[in-house]
Fold Homogentisate 1,2-dioxygenase.
Amino acid sequence: MAYYHRLGQIPPKRHTQFRQPDGSLYKEELVSSKGFSGIYSNLYHIYNPNEVKTIGKPKPFKWEVAKDHGLQQTHLKTSGVGTTGKDYLAARRMLMMNNDVMMGICSPEQRKMDYYFKNADGDELIYIHDGNGVLYSQFGKLEVRKGDYIVIPRTTIYRFEFEEEGPLRLLVIESQGPIETVKRYRNEVGQLLEHSPYCERDIRPPHELHIEKEKGEYLVQIKKQGMLHQYSYGHSPLDIVGWDGYLYPYALSIYDFEPITGRIHQPPPVHQTFQAWGFVICSFVPRLFDYHPLAIPAPYNHSNIDSDEVLYYAEGEFMSRRGIDRGSFTIHMGGLPHGPHPGTVEKSIGAKSTEEYAVMLDTFRPLQITTDALDFVDENYPMSWTD
Ligand SMILES: [Fe+2]
């Protein structure tokens, strides 16, 4: 992550004796990325993190590509979908993927997880479309709310507790590479620059420790190579009395993303929010439209020659598209041009502002939809530019 943070008690010098009230040592754990060359944190456990009691039978946890979908502009109508499964993992329905990234939806019936989850395959980015709650992890308690992006580095052990009232709808992105702030917005030591659409004040790390000391039966489901491995411990994995470093989960609200606007239409890089291997994430937020006297606020036709573009429509009316609802996905594939629907260009002229919110995923390698996505395909979308 972009800045150093610490919570709880830590010894003044790393890798030195740090004792519990009974005189025994706290158990230090270094959680590091890119071997020893990336960001890391040092965690201090009450119990030994290697003390596994039992390992259950692993369960398959992967998605299949819909092989026959082929090259076509795609609209997935997921707006009407209710709950998508019983619990946080069962409800995860990944809709598109390639070797770098997967993206899908999750609307669990159970609002409070009664197990812990660790994704050992990739970093996660959870966008809370609807819902409020708390992320409990080894790094402490983080209150999360509608509109938050939550970046969860791989191997973070966590559970969510969402409020029971109101709708709950999550957009889930899993990344093979680390999810990072945008490099061109950082100075040489990592601080976000003045022209960045958000800064460190907008980034919310865990704000207080959550220490579970009681012994008992604790299940951690670990995702690794398409399986959910069932690990049981005699103590909670949330037994951390202190930690410090740069690696931790954090939240950034889409409502804190400051739009960059111009006299003529600005391209998607001005909306970029995160970077990762093989893709970027952008945020479309309410903003003033272009102010050249002859400006056309709607985007121009665009031919992707080397990327696939996914838009997830979160709020408001998206001025360049027809037939799109809150919760729709559009996938505009490389190899085809895409652009505003007929009539929307003329309609946009003279418009002063937009109230839209959308999350965009641009990949640099082709995406394929999964068999789970077939339930939501709008068959008419590829021909929807023809009146
Ligand atoms: Fe585009």
Summary: The two ends are 48 Å apart (CA to CA). The helical segments are 344-348. Residues 302, 309, 332, 338 surround fe (ii) ion (CB under 6 Å).
